[in-house]
Automatic annotation (TrEMBL):
<keyword id="KW-0444">Lipid biosynthesis</keyword>
<dbReference type="InterPro" id="IPR043130">
    <property type="entry name" value="CDP-OH_PTrfase_TM_dom"/>
</dbReference>
<keyword id="KW-0812">Transmembrane</keyword>
<dbReference type="GO" id="GO:0003882">
    <property type="term" value="F:CDP-diacylglycerol-serine O-phosphatidyltransferase activity"/>
</dbReference>
<feature type="region of interest" description="Disordered">
    <location>
        <begin position="1"/>
        <end position="26"/>
    </location>
</feature>
<dbReference type="GO" id="GO:0005789">
    <property type="term" value="C:endoplasmic reticulum membrane"/>
</dbReference>
<comment type="similarity">
    <text>Belongs to the CDP-alcohol phosphatidyltransferase class-I family.</text>
</comment>
<dbReference type="GO" id="GO:0006646">
    <property type="term" value="P:phosphatidylethanolamine biosynthetic process"/>
</dbReference>
<dbReference type="Pfam" id="PF01066">
    <property type="entry name" value="CDP-OH_P_transf"/>
</dbReference>
<feature type="transmembrane region" description="Helical">
    <location>
        <begin position="138"/>
        <end position="157"/>
    </location>
</feature>
<protein>
    <recommendedName>
        <fullName>CDP-diacylglycerol--serine O-phosphatidyltransferase</fullName>
        <ecNumber>2.7.8.8</ecNumber>
    </recommendedName>
</protein>
<keyword id="KW-1208">Phospholipid metabolism</keyword>
<dbReference type="InterPro" id="IPR004533">
    <property type="entry name" value="CDP-diaglyc--ser_O-PTrfase"/>
</dbReference>
<keyword id="KW-0256">Endoplasmic reticulum</keyword>
<dbReference type="InterPro" id="IPR050324">
    <property type="entry name" value="CDP-alcohol_PTase-I"/>
</dbReference>
<keyword id="KW-0443">Lipid metabolism</keyword>
<dbReference type="InterPro" id="IPR000462">
    <property type="entry name" value="CDP-OH_P_trans"/>
</dbReference>
């Protein structure tokens, strides 16, 4: 897995920038200069981050389209296919921020919100679309999304106090970065290619016809959620 796939998965965790750029953006945001003045405060890297969020939301819409027309298999493939494009833009925003030496607190927040959509809500939506949708499944998928939300919020709060190397970058991730959920998305893509969806989901169901019925496949999301919020799991940055 590439550096961005694993340790550059959240660009706010790796991008740098000067205080002057951040202060300038804060002043522009606070100034009353018209309805669309906020657009002028966005850096190029921020616009690329927006494309990450766009891909995530398009993935969610594609899952919804598949639910409305299960015969349209193209929709579920689009749902799964938009996620890697989100990862590409998530990689590029950090690269552009370092290249232009411009980053911002707003860009950090944008990055976290976009990642939550593309690598939290979108995979959970795709899982629901392919048949992981009992009442208990809802709870487990919600747990996964909330773990991703918590993981991203924790990073934004603790990034400044994590141990740094000589270049000023954090030495490790606490818990797995949320974009690693694409591994689950890749597995779901394989299931779709094999027709292992809906009634044919791997490992079937547990406690069938009860309020506790769930698909064991959803436990992959539970495991990933636990890995994301782990405090003791440290993943070194190359």
């Amino acid at each position: 897995m590439s550096r961005r796939n694993l340790n550059h998965a959240v660009s706010s965790e790796t991008s740098g920038g000067g205080e002057g750029s951040q202060e300038k953006q804060k002043r522009l945001l606070q100034a009353e200069a018209g309805h669309f003045s906020m657009v002028r405060t966005l850096h190029l890297a921020d616009l690329i981050t927006e494309l990450n969020g766009f891909c995530g939301f398009m993935s969610v819409l594609s899952s919804m389209r598949y639910l409305s027309d299960p015969e349209s298999t193209n929709s579920i493939w689009l749902a799964l296919g938009f996620m890697p494009f989100g990862l590409f833009f998530d990689f590029m925003d950090g690269r552009v921020a370092r290249w232009r030496k411009k980053s911002s607190l707003m860009g950090q927040e944008l990055d976290s919100l976009a990642d939550l959509i593309s690598f939290g809500v979108a995979p959970a939506s795709a899982a629901f679309a392919i048949g992981i949708r009992t009442a208990a499944d809802h709870i487990f998928l919600s747990f996964f999304v909330l773990c991703g939300l918590t993981r991203l919020a924790r990073f934004n709060v603790t990034a400044a106090v994590l141990p740094k190397d000589k270049t000023g970058k954090s030495k490790y991730f606490e818990g797995t970065p949320i974009p690693t959920s694409l591994l689950i998305a890749s597995l779901m893509a394989y299931w779709v290619s094999q027709g292992w969806i809906h009634e044919n989901l791997p490992w079937g169901t547990v406690a069938q016809d009860t309020i506790f019925e769930f698909h064991p496949a959803v436990l992959l999301f539970v495991l990933w959620g636990c890995l994301m919020v782990s405090k003791t799991l440290h993943i070194p940055k190359p």
